[in-house]
Amino acid sequence: MRAVVQRVSEAAVAVDGQTIGAIGPGLMILICAMQDDDATKPALMAAKIAKLRIFKDADSKMNRSLTDTGGQALVISQFTLAADTSRGNRPGFSAAAAPDIGNQLYEAFAQAMRDLGIGVEMGRFGADMAVSLINDGPVTITLDI
User: Fold this and answer.
1) Which pLDDT tens digit goes with each residue over 39-95?
2) Which domain holds residue 112?
3) Number of domains in the chain
4) Catalytic residue among 6, 55, 79, 109
């Protein structure tokens, strides 16, 4: 799995002009299931993200995790994270998991985050979404599991 994690003060996702998910302080997570991912990957990625120490402590050092802060997560499926541009200017996405598997792993990732006690809001798999956020810091981390 591949993820882009952004520390946010707020984030929201809309489909057809209707907000379907919104959070306050926490993480906006773009997540992509890759072709060789299996059922073990979502829990591994969720555990890694939940424990990332990217929130400020009392000394303004990044020493606190999402679990420590009680923040929320907005989880958005993002197959374009699998983009390969090595053969030109038009990206290829063959490294992404097939849509049915991608959706299963996306749902499993969100559930794994919930199982860790994190409040999760989600986008809609395969939908044309409008995502808005206020990146806090800015802090943006990429992860591959």
Assistant:
1) 999 999 999 999 999 999 999 999 999 999 999 999 999 999 999 999 999 999 999
2) 2-144
3) 1
4) 79
Choosing from 6, 55, 72, 78, the catalytic residue is: 78
Q: CATH number of the domain at 11, please.
A: 3.50.80.10
Q: 81-133, pLDDT tens digit by residue?
A: 999 999 999 999 999 999 999 999 999 999 999 999 999 999 999 999 999 99
Nearest residue to 75 (alpha-carbon basis) of 34, 37, 44, 118: 118
Q: Rounded distance, CA 15 to CA 10, Å? A: 18
Question: Would residue 6 show up in a list of annotated catalytic residues for this protein?
Answer: no
Could you confirm whether 85 is annotated as catalytic? no
Q: Which of 19, 35, 80, 142 is catalytic?
A: 80
Rounded CA separation 138/141 (Å): 10
Let me know if 80 is a catalytic residue. yes
